[in-house]
Structure formats: C-alpha cells, structure tokens
Amino acid sequence: MPLQAHSFRTWLSVLGILILSAVPYFSFAQSADKAHIWMNTRLSPDERASMVVKVMTLDEKISMLHGTGMPGLSPMSPLAIHSNGGAGFVPAIPRLGIPAIQMSDAAYGVRSSGENGRYATALPSDIAGAASWDLDAGYEYGALIGRELRAQGYNMSLGGGTNLTREPRNGRTFEYLGEDPILAGKMVGSVMKGLQAQHVIGDIKHYALNDQEAGRNAVNVNIDKRAARESDLLAFEIGLQEGDVAAVMCSYNRVDGDYACENKYLLTDLLKKDWNFKGFVLSDWGGTHSTAKASAAGLDHEQPGELFFGDDLKKAVEAGKVPVAEIDDHVHRILRAMFATGAIDDPPQKSVVDVVGGFEVAQKIAEQSTVLLKNDHAQLPLDASRIQSIAVIGPHADVGMISGGGSAQVDPPGGNAIMPPGKGQTRWLEKIWFPTSPLKAIRAKAPGANVQFDSGADPAAAAALAKTADVAIIFAYQWESEGMDLDSLALPENQDDLIAKVAAANPHTVVVIESGGPVTMPWADQVSGILEAWYAGSRGADAVANLIFGDVNPSAKLPVTFPKSVSDLPHPTVVQPPPASVPNYMQREVWKQIATGLAPFQVTYDEGVKVGYKWYDAEHKPVLFPFGYGLSYTTYAYSNFKVMPGKNPHVTFTVTNTGKRAGAEVAEVYASLPAASSEPPKRLVGWSKVKLNAGESKEVSVDVDPKYLSIFNVQQNAWQLLPGDYTFMAGGSSQELPLKASVSLK
Ligand code: BGC
After folding, report:
1. Cβ of 176 below 6 Å from ligand 1
2. Which residues pair with 89 in a beta bridge?
3. Closest Cα to residue 388, out of 332, 448, 456?
4. How far apart are CA 156 and CA 11, in angstroms?
5. Eight-state DSSP code of residue 661
6. Measuring from atom 3 of ligand 1, which residue has the nearest CA?
7. Distance 173 CA to ligand 1 centre (A)
8. Model-level pTM?
C-alpha cells in the first residue's frame, strides 16, 4: 500500500475515533452540567444522592426499592428482560442518568457463569480465606471478585457472608469466616475494601444470627442481647466499620420475635443509629414479610420481587401510612451507595475475564489457607527426588476437588468434573467437583515416581494399593450447601473406614480434607499427616501439591475449632422445624406461604457468647484441633513480651524462626478479662502474620482496640471497659500461648 494512502486511512480512522469518543463525552458533559448536576464528582455522595431524590417522582422512587422477580420466588416483572442474568436486578432510570443495579451472588466467585455462557474463577471458600489470617489476601480475594463481576457486567456483589460458626453443622459454614467475631469482622472488612475498590457495591450478609439452614424462613432465634452484641453482631459491626460496606442483606430468620428484615432493633436502632450505617439494607430473597412495618423498621429494598415494596408501598405512601420522608431515606441510601462506590461514575465494562490472573490468585490464596494439622516424624514435605511410589486415594481425586453449593456455587469451566465434558450443569443441591485433579498435580510433582489411583469405593482394595506404596495420600471430602445442614461432622461415604484401613496398611498415610468446616477424625491418631484444604477453588490441586512437596511452606491457622465429637457442641442436634414451619415446595406460588410468614419455632442460643473456642475453654472440653492452630515446616519461638496499657493498649513481642525454612507465622494475641466480667477464659484481641527467613527474628507490635477488651453493657447500651486486671497472652494457637503478662487497666 502506498505510504500516502496508508497515512490518509490512518488519519481518517484517528478522526473517526476522535469523533466517536467525543460524542459520549459531549452528551455526558452537557447532561452533567445542565440536567444531571449530581454527576459532579466533586460533591459528596450524600449531596449527590439528595439532588437526585429531590427531582424523582414517586414511581421512580418506588422502582428503586424492589427487584424484578425471580422464578419460583416471586412473580416476574416484564422489566426483568434487561437483567444481566444475576440474582437481583433494579432497572435504570435513564431520565436521571441512574444506571441499573445488576446484582450477582459472589461468595467465592461470580455465580451463574455457566448458564450465562461466561467464566468465573473459583477462589478457595470464604472460610479458607479466613484461615489465611491475612488481610492482604482478603483484599485480593475481594478485588478479584470485583474485577470479575465488572467484566461480567455486574455492579453489585451479594457475597460477604459474616455469620459466626456458632453451629458448625450449618450447611453454609464454608461461606462464612469462622467462629471469632474479630477475625471474621476484620477479614470481611478487607474483602469488602478490595471489592468496592473495583467500583462494585459490596454487601455483607446474612444479618443476623442466621446460623442454621433448617427452617430458615421460620425459625425464631432467642439470644441474650449482651451475648449477641459480643459475638455474631460484633462481627458485622467490625466488618462494616473496617470495610465501609455499602449494603447489608438482612436474613430469613426471626430474631427475638421479629423477622430480621422487619426488626427495628437490628435494622434501625443498631445498624443505622448505633453503628451509623449510611448504606442500604436489602432483604434476602423472599425475606420481606410486610410493607409498612418493614419500611418503618429500616428495610430499604425488597428482593427479588415486589410483593411488598412495589404497588403496595406506593399505595401505603399515598394513603399516608408510610411517610414520604421514609421512602426518600430508602432511596437516598441506595443512591448514596451507588455514588460512594463509584458504581455510577465508573460503570462496569463487559470484557473477557482474566482467567490466567484468576488462577494465580486462587492458587496463591489456597496455598496461604491450607492448614497443616498433623505432621508426625516430619512426614511432609515429600521429597520428590527420593520417593518412588505414591498411592493417591479418594472419591474423584483423579479428576477434581469438591466445591460448596447453593447460591454461592461457582460454575466450573467445562462443567462438573465427574460428568461428561460440557454436560455437567450446576443444579441446586448437587455436588460440583472442580476440574483440578490431585492425581495429575501429584504426578507432575513427582515425575519419577509410580503414582497410582484408587477411588476408595472398596476400602480393602485401596488399602492393598496403599500397602505397595511409599506413601498413601487420601483426599477425603465433606460437602456442604445452602439449603441443608449436616447431620454430623463425620465424613460421608464410609470415608472414616477407608482412612482407617489405608492407615493400617501404610504407616505413611497423609489425609487431605476438603470440607466447609470442622470434621471429626476418629482415625487422627493412626495417620502421619493431615492437611485441611477446605474447598480449595479453581487451582486447589496445584496448591495442595505445592504444600505436600514443600514448594510452599504451610502458614494457615484454623478459624474454627475442630471438636473431638459432635457431643461436645453446645447443642446435641440442629433444631428441626415442625411441618407448619416448612414451605411446601410442591405447591405453586410457594412464595405466598413464605411471604405471609410461616409458623415460628424456637432456637435458643443459651451458650450465648461462648461460640467456638470460648465454649470449649469455658466448659473445659478437650478438642481435636484448637482455634488458631496450624503447623509449618519450620518452627517459631516467642519471647520478649511487653504490654503497654493506657487508652490504646498495645503489645509487642519477638517471634523467631527457629527452623531451617522461611515461613510465615500467624502470631495471635488473646486477653482474659477481669473476673467480674463473667466472660469466657479468653478472647482473641489481635494478631499479626509475620514473614520470617530461617533463623530470623522480628519484633511484632499489635494494637488492641479497647472495644475488643470491653463487655457490652445493655443498660447503658454501650461498650464498657471494666476496670481491673487483664491478662494478655501471645503465641501460635489459642492453646499454645507461651507469652503471658497481666496489667491493670483504667
Ligand atoms: C441466599 C442469599 C443469596 C440470595 C440470592 C438466597 O437464597 O440466602 O445468600 O444472596 O438467595 O441468590
């Protein structure tokens, strides 16, 4: 092509680009300057929201206060056609330049990618993220989800599970962040910071005390107010404060008599007044049960449809039953959240998800979150150059690793790994195995070894294979999902028997657990190694192989206690609902039963503040593996403890890597309150994850928020630091705290 023609065409295309890119700019600038004065980014989110509310019609306002329906849960609005395919959708208001809200579930990755023909990375489950005790990893976790939501066209996440593991048989334990309010609160805060930095509206859920799935639409939770404030509610309080989270999802259950989504104490008195929450409250899907009552209690937005916050709300306003100011406040909060997060100024641009980048983050977080629970005789790491034969055993360990189900489910590329490629759809309450193959990953690590597989379906055959190998690695699983609870914490499918038989055949047996929470291990004394890999995500197998062969040194610690037996839990069983409290899903329009309110049944959390380790400590119950516990391939020593009392107490101490490998130690700080507090023996008050080379020492400093040392005084409705003697302790697990010092505060 002659040069001239070439440059003429280049010039033309440059001109074209200039004109095209200028068109939206000019129209935006014009509307921003003249009509849409709220598009001025120099104004605060509150100022901008107020300006919009002032010019909205009642219909426009109401349109922001509900979704457009979900099959099976509500009637559908014709407007749902504009939804991006996520769980929730709020139509745009083009006249005002307000974009739609496109919401997607995104607990450990973006949901429903399969049916929408898209791709999403599966991170390790949320509880795994908490096991990293690494706030930077939490930020990366949220940022990855935020980027993938945007790439898929969403501007709001429905992740952010924050409920405490009060009942470890809860089928959603994997979606939450363990049993300690400070760990869970700080971790969800970091995840939300990372997510909202991508200009996606963050949401934390399920507010509050939604700690079992059985009868979730009817159950009434009874709990002492002080205990609630110091446990489950504290996790939310810290999460909201640390993460400046834009939305809160109220839960399905009742709390002290009222449904959470029409509970004035939870939504207004506590959340909006005491905690000064400026964002908006949306109901869990089908969690709205009234119009005027819910609106007055502080519910801002109904999902998924408009059973109560559509026409009925409009009529209630027109009849003077719901004040316009109340409606304005709901709308203001939603608009403020959109402005504050940048969801309006920087709308999502659909693009190809960064698959390779996603794999890297997922693998790194899995490596940081897999907990080494047992390693007798330094069984691990395996030396790939010396090992000659390995038996890889366990259900589907040849093809994949299990994932958590329900609305958190992320769809695997190619479909369920145990189905013919491409045929495996994700269906409610069906197990999904991710195509991350432990067998392949182990073969890749030990190319010189003879690596054989047995599914474990016949324990005797698996044991026979194990007998011939230098080492047996069993991948055992326990599946969890929304919509169910576990009967017990035992491994299903006869896996306890499988492990016992393999361990009897080979003294070098390592068990890798894929679970959503604690499992019981009657065979724990018989095996030489145990790793807790949780639901390990898209690259779980590579991460686990890197840990087994020592390319990565384990550094995670348990965010939940592993009890010896379910009989040690505060409650013998999960309370089951009577028939009148269960929706009849065979009936058409079952949502009507749920909406009107199913008969309540009672669950009483009389263990109160004694959640997790606080319970076992107070009740003197020995545990299998304690909260905060986790081994490494190196060892650490603690020394030089100093406690600085005062208004903002802090502690310092030295951690030394006394072994031969670099590692990262989660150094934990606990405190015992004065005896007059009647609190459990100790509580976590801070921690620091410290990277140390072999032989290296570092001074660690941990600030302790006075609130974490306080009790909640119900009469004064305030946190109170009791005067008296406080004992601070530091170490590598809640049951191994070599440093101890007492100080008197106040
Ligand atoms: C779950 C929520 C979820 C919502 C939307 C509900 O069943 O409890 O966690 O965000 O559905 O899918």
Report:
1. no
2. 102
3. 448
4. 40
5. S
6. 407
7. 14
8. 0.95
